[in-house]
Amino acid sequence: MFADPQFLMSCALFLPVLWGLGLFGFPSRAVSAIRWYALAGACCELAITVQLSGVALGWIDASPAVNASTTSLRNDILLGMSLPWIPTWNVNYSLGVDGFSLPLILLTSLIFVLSIVASWSIKTQIRGFLFLLLLLETGVMGVFLALDFFLFFVMWEVMLLPMYFLIGLWGGPRREYAAIKFFLYTLAGGVCLLMAMLMVYSASGGSFDLLELARMAQGQVPKSGMDLDQGIALSAAMGDTSLQWRVFVLLLIAFLIKLPAVPLHTWLPDAHVEAPTPVSMILAGILLKLGGYGFLRIAIPICPLGFAEWAWFMVALGVFCVLYGALAALAQSDFKRLVAYSSVSHMGYVLMGLGAFRFQELTGAVLNPDFSTMGLSAATFQMVAHGIVSAGMFFVVGVLYDRVKHRDLRQFGGIASLQPHFSAIAAGIFFAGLGLPGLCGFIGEAFSIFSVWHVDRFFSVGGALGMILTAGYILWALQRVYLGPTYTGPNREYLTEINFREYTVGYILLAFAIGLGVYPATALNVIEPASRQLVQQISGSQERQLSLNRASIESPLDK
């Protein structure tokens, strides 16, 4: 049973919230027990996702029955399961993992463990805070595991309320404003996602199966037991260019809000500044990745023709986000707001890699498909790397804020002489965010730029310029905070070395930043097969559509 992927996927989905319910069995005064109980649950979740990864990658043997049941799945789906949920409307409890979702699932379980360790600084309503964290983890896992559009949407919306309350109840002085702004932006994205889902559901004849929808969008007849003529008609409806264009625009808006991309990013700095440190770690480390993952799981596979029309826009917007986020970070005097804008810049590289497609006009084939595969792989790797780096940067800022109760860069300075050990950890994490070769931040950014070169060299140069600006604000922040002449702010007496708990979080994040930078193949070997499969699907859809267009033009002449 414990090597059964169906059992492991269901455990990974529901264990956090079920474990979180156990928190209410503790008296509210048992603060230490509540914290250790929540941490134990997050560690169990991490162990389950590690075991699930071992089964998916073949390191742990699964039962023959399970292996046989996965043979009908798409080649890039490592593991999957499907059970009826609402049969009347063809809604299924469908879960699966592939090269895109598996690294993000592992990242999620790791960041939640570290965030709960960092939550020792929370002093009020601890039980409610930790329960909302565990509920949020269930929502995130559901998005990364879902292979049913309806289930994906439900889990997407489940994340909304925990984050709203985590910011609104435990945030800073303007927490209500930040929480409402986050709620409204995310809700608007959810409405766009819902409209796109309804359009796809109607055109497909009532299917929420993401794998089936992708096959139909690419012109293939559904595998379900329907009449052949009906299947061909539905496949033609899903392959309609106009429909895919409209659906892709709705999905583009929904996922750009979550990414976030300019000009839909304004909720992010406010949410980060007001959120407590553990929530900022989760928000930057995990929740921003849901936008990029949405493109990989839904928007691009089920709307390849719409994507072909908007790929150039994604690259252009990605470059703009890189430059805008870096310039905005340079203009900040609030340490946390600087890190928040750095996320806007770094996630721009994700958008660049996702859109790194160029189509040949006559045949529809992807020019230089290896570069397009590189772009998708680089975008996914960048999401993982940014998850490590951004969580570490917000943790560093949070450690300083817990001691001196301010984030004003103008009052910092000389921290390296007061906290030399912690300053070394912070420097390593910030250099990873800078994109220094040998650290994880370099790989995704560099190869996103390389992949865009065959789309438009101007955009590639723009992305490279963003790396220079990134070095500017990172080095400026390190100089002002750690190497300045002296600290001039309040509470200087509290600037002591960090404790064992803080060392643990810092060193784990730094170790992953170094490990993924030195040997990125650990993740890329998992990601690349899924990227290559998706590139082939997009190219095939384009070729099919162009052949249909030529046939429609030639047929009247034949008559």
Automatic annotation (TrEMBL):
Protein's organism: Planctopirus ephydatiae
Localization: Endomembrane system; Membrane
Enzyme class per UniProt? oxidoreductase
A Gene Ontology BP annotation from the UniProt entry: ATP synthesis coupled electron transport
List the GO cellular component terms.
endomembrane system; membrane
Name by which UniProt lists this protein: NAD(P)H-quinone oxidoreductase chain 4 1
Q: What is its EC number?
A: 1.6.5.-
Query: What transmembrane ranges does the database entry give?
Result: 6-24, 36-60, 100-122, 129-147, 153-170, 182-203, 247-268, 280-300, 312-331, 338-359, 379-401, 422-444, 464-483, 504-527
